[in-house]
Amino acid sequence: MNKSTRPTLSDVRKWPATISVAQAASAIGCSKSHLHERIRRGDSPVKTIPLGSRHVIITADLARLLSAEGDAAGEPDGIRGAA
C-alpha cells in the first residue's frame, strides 16, 4: 500500500484482527477525528472495542463495510449508521 492512496479491500483483509482508529479512517476515507466523533456519539459505521480511553476497530467489520460500499448508492463512502 502506498501512503498516498487508500488501502484496498484486499489490503484490509490482510490486516490484524483489530486496528487503530487512524488506520480504519484511512481505509474508509474520512479523518481520524471524524471517526473518533462518530464512535463517541455511538454511531460508528464499524464495530469497536473500548480499551481504556481508546478504541480499536474490528478489521472484519471494516472489511464488511468496504465490501458493501458498492451497494450503498447515494451514501458517501458506504457509511451508514450502526445497526
From TrEMBL:
Its protein name is DNA-binding protein
User: Which species is the source of this protein?
Assistant: Streptomyces albireticuli
Write the lineage as a comma-separated list: Bacteria, Bacillati, Actinomycetota, Actinomycetes, Kitasatosporales
